[in-house]
Amino acid sequence: MTKNISVIVGSLRRGSYARKIARQVITYFPNGYEAQIVEIRDLPLYDFDYDDPEVTDKPTPKEYTRFRETIKAADGVLFVTAENNRTIPACLKNAIDIGSKPNIDVAWKNLPAGIISHSVGRMGGYSSQKNLRLALSYFDMPSPGQPEVFLGQSPTLFDDQDRISSERTVEFLRDYIVRLVELVETSAKRTRE
What CA–CA distance (Å, rounded) separates 64 from 68? Predict the structure, then answer.
């Protein structure tokens, strides 16, 4: 049975480095896995009025419902994000907030999660990854341990075909995907028992 991985890119820009990394990493998943980017660009800003049963004149946007159902149907999620102003991009925080409601049916709950962060500087999105981990910690989402993935100087990662050019970086990312897949398999096994 095919397992589905929802890939969330923390950038709205079509040509972003995060999107280039995500496209490459999707190809590293093994047979039996389907990893796809779940677009977050059209999600309206989160407003609790949409989920408040006492507010009857603001129906939940169909984009919220579609996003939540996609995440709940996933066997795991992979976040690929840049760092904006020492934290996660606003579009990514918005997506996390949307998936966190309603409280009785949180889309993120117990979902295995991988995180790849990057920055144009040398730190590799360290602050964004730590802030993302903090936001996700509330949902009991298991994630691969060390080593974490911080990709620094992201403009230099790619060749003219938008492929990651360093074989060492490719192997590092492949290993991370192997560890994420192992986590998904372990989580699926627990669910079946």
Answer: 6
Measure Cα distances from 183 to 54, 108, 111 in Å: 39, 15, 10
pTM: 0.95
How do residues 116-160 score in pLDDT, each as one tens digit? 999 998 888 999 999 999 999 989 999 998 999 999 999 999 999
The beta-strand segments (E) located in the chain are 3-10, 33-37, 76-81, 113-118, 149-151
CATH of 3-192, one of 3.40.50.300, 1.10.10.10, 3.30.950.30, 3.40.50.360: 3.40.50.360
pLDDT digits (tens, 9 = 90+) for 27-85: 999 999 999 999 999 999 999 999 999 999 999 999 999 999 999 999 999 999 998 88
Residue 154 is given by DSSP the state: G
CA distance 149 to 147: 7
φ and ψ of 80, to 5 deg = -125, 115
**Per-domain boundaries in the chain:** 3-192
